[in-house]
Design a protein that fits this description.
OB fold (Dihydrolipoamide Acetyltransferase, E2P), 5-stranded antiparallel beta sheet, 29 strands
Length: 536
């Protein structure tokens, strides 16, 4: 009998997974224990074994696609078995996400209001024209009620929080209703206009349209605009067929939209050489985009220098690791009240200690290993820093598990050195080295990245002198470690050459008070500046 294989939950925080590689294809024989696929989670790329035997009859998620946990991944059964019934049952399950990037223009779509809309009528709402836009102001209407509108016509100019932009119509018909007058502002998704067949009664739609998105409000005039508009509304007698390009001058003036004007300036185009295709011969965005300068340099025509470079960029979809890093760090930063304690330690003794320690055959420890060990010992003396916050209680951990931040190609992982206070410096060094190597090859297991009670992040090897970190929740603190710098210091009243290192402790104020954090750093200082005490 055929077995449905769902996207597994391969880590405690995993909500969706991406199929990195299929190691079996439809029609292949699968034995129990065979690796079906490599699945990218929020923490690592992991091999997924089959717990069933049979033939791979169906693949529900292709390589590179993402789907939620428990969604259909594959079906295994007997060769030639009819699985159509299973596919029908699972067709309502969450689908894999292989999304195309959303274009800005697509954000200006029909209203999602529950108001019943007659066939052929389209409700146009205030579009989101920038990533930070919350409301828009209608700077000017290029169409009035009763005008015919063709797909691609400029309906209005809308002022956002970043610029004044042209808003094209994605429908054809008659402009039946204007919901926001010139100079008025409204929130995203408020009723902007209604387009449909001429003569259609839309008064019911307009009066019943949801105003949850916000009511239009009249903006007070401002004395100075950041980008003054150079638009002179054409007189009625000057109106011509908007579908045919016409000269865009009248009485020596140019009719040009603010966006087109800005684009032409950036490209160094002479506006008088561009033929407008907008209403009344107005130059609009597409005219500038389609304009090819004459042999004479357009830069010379406008008397300015035009850079020869061209703007360019590449896009790559966010990996599962990057999505979860963003989500968890944002949650930590905005839920845990962070504060920072900055110190500078004398590293002369630490340098001498490490040099002598590494003379032992087959032994090599790093400064980071010494810091991890020192933190573990200091945490045993200050359990409040080794704590975790919960809504109804605080957990003071008696064990010490140190998370060590490791940079990988697509982000950051934090493998955990368990019971670090009980391990020797060489043991810590070997564990961290092994974790770092396997982290970069995405071979860490979820269990190796769980359970930390404190975290160390070291950027000293990159030449960073000092920095602050975001707490790796549910930890209460994270230590940021800079590089060792040689500089003049005062010792016993004399200026001498010394070696110092800056550290910053980020604390969650809900669990660690300032004095508590300071006392922890004093203890840490004793271990770092007198490292032989870590061996006692």
């Amino acid at each position: 009998m055929a077995e449905i294989i769902n996207m597994p939950r391969l880590s405690d925080t995993m909500e969706e997974g991406t199929v990195a590689t299929w190691l079996k294809k439809v029609g292949d024989v699968v034995s129990e224990g065979d690796i079906l696929a490599e699945i990218e989670t929020d923490k690592a790329t992991m091999e997924f074994e089959s717990f069933h035997e049979g033939t791979l009859l169906h693949i529900g998620v292709q390589e590179g696609e993402t789907t939620k946990v428990d969604s259909l991944l594959a079906i295994i059964g007997e060769k030639g078995e009819d699985i159509s019934g299973l596919l029908n049952v699972t067709s309502e399950a969450p689908k894999s996400e292989a999304k195309e990037p959303v274009k800005e223009e697509e954000l200006a779509t029909e209203s999602s209001s529950n108001v019943e809309v007659p066939e052929g009528v389209t409700v146009v709402t205030m579009p989101r024209l920038s990533d930070t836009m919350e409301e828009g102001t209608v700077a000017s209407w290029l169409k009035k009620v009763g005008d015919e509108v063709s797909e691609g016509d400029i309906l209005a100019e809308i002022e956002t929080d970043k610029a004044t932009m042209e808003f094209e119509s994605f429908q054809s018909g008659t402009l039946l209703y204007v919901g926001i007058n010139e100079g008025e502002s409204a929130k995203i998704d408020s009723l902007l206009a209604i387009i449909g067949p001429a003569g259609t009664d839309v008064s019911g739609i307009a009066s019943n349209f949801s105003v949850d998105a916000g009511t239009a409000k009249k903006e007070e005039p401002v004395a100075i605009k950041e980008e003054p508009k150079q638009i002179t509304p054409p007189k009625k007698e000057e109106k011509v067929n908007a579908s045919s390009p016409v000269p865009n001058t009248s009485n020596g003036r140019l009719y040009v939209s603010p966006l087109a004007k800005k684009m032409a300036e950036e490209k160094g185009f002479n506006l008088s050489q561009i033929t407008g295709s907008g209403e009344n011969g107005r130059i609009i965005k597409r005219d500038v985009e389609n304009f090819t300068p004459s042999a004479v340099s357009s830069a010379a025509a406008v008397g300015k220098f035009v850079p020869a470079g061209q703007e360019d960029f590449d896009e790559k979809p966010n990996s599962q690791m990057r999505k979860v890093i963003a989500k968890r760090l944002a949650e930590s930063k905005f839920t845990a009240p962070h504060y920072y304690l900055n110190v500078e330690f004398d590293m002369d003794n630490a340098i001498a200690f490490r040099t002598q320690f590494n003379t032992i055959p087959d032994t090599k420890i790093s400064y980071n290993d010494m810091i991890v060990k020192a933190c573990a010992l200091a945490l045993k003396k200050h359990p409040q820093v080794n704590s975790q916050w919960f809504a109804d209680k605080m957990r003071l951990n008696n064990h010490v598990h140190i998370g060590v931040a490791v940079a990988v190609e697509d982000g950051l992982v934090v493998p955990v050195v368990k019971f670090a206070n009980e391990q020797s410096l060489p043991q810590i060094g070997a564990a961290v080295k092994d974790f770092a190597g396997r982290a970069r090859n995405k071979k860490l297991t979820p269990a190796e990245m769980e359970g930390s009670t404190f975290t160390v992040s070291n950027l000293g090897m990159f030449g960073i002198e000092s920095f602050t970190s975001i707490i790796n929740q549910p930890n209460s603190a994270i230590l940021s470690v800079g590089n060792i710098i040689q500089k003049p210091v005062v010792k016993e009243g004399q200026i001498v050459v010394g070696n110092t290192m800056k550290l910053s402790l980020a604390c969650d104020h809900r669990t660690v008070d300032g004095a508590t954090g300071a006392q922890f750093l004093q203890t840490l200082k004793e271990y770092i500046e007198n490292p032989v005490t870590m061996l006692v």
